[in-house]
Amino acid sequence: MTLERIVIVGKPGAGKTTLAGELASRLSLHNVELDAINWQPNWVPLPKDEMRERVSESISATDNWVLDGNYKAVRDIVWGRADTLIWLDYPLWLALWRVFKRTMGRIFKQKELWNGNRESIGHHLTLDPEENLFAWTIRMHKSHRNDYPTLFEQPEYSHLKVLRFRSPRETESWLQTIPSARDV
């Protein structure tokens, strides 16, 4: 199986960024994190046109890359150029637990994410799914389960090798079949 241009999708807490980092290391791929491109200082999202331009530049700069994220605004660019799509379709309860642990750690350690942004308790006390990562996770779980199977059937994405993993154990078993560039 060719693994040269990989996109990793899934709800928050699935482990997209972690898996992308591991694959980038194992396969010597350029690593692109969509959240790092999108989120500007003070949690201001990059305008759609600029986002599309930056993502296109990031994946055109090299022939081999791994990218994580679910942004509809760049789906046609990313999925159109990818050879493999990995869908981390884990149970909702697991994603919510991981989001909780990750978020609490980030808040208490005041970890900077992208462009000076940090998570705060205030982000998670609102019911607005655009602000509350837990509400967003629930929304995306339902959306992905409904939309992704249909999207994978579209002619413009028929070239993609789609790998759907339903548990971290399943993902880890597959990952162990990928030789590390360090071992070659």
From TrEMBL:
- Which SUPFAM superfamilies does the annotation name? P-loop containing nucleoside triphosphate hydrolases
Q: Do you know which InterPro entries this protein is assigned to?
A: Cytidylate_Kinase-2, P-loop_NTPase
List the residue ranges forming a coiled coil, or say none: none
Listed name of the protein:
Adenylate kinase
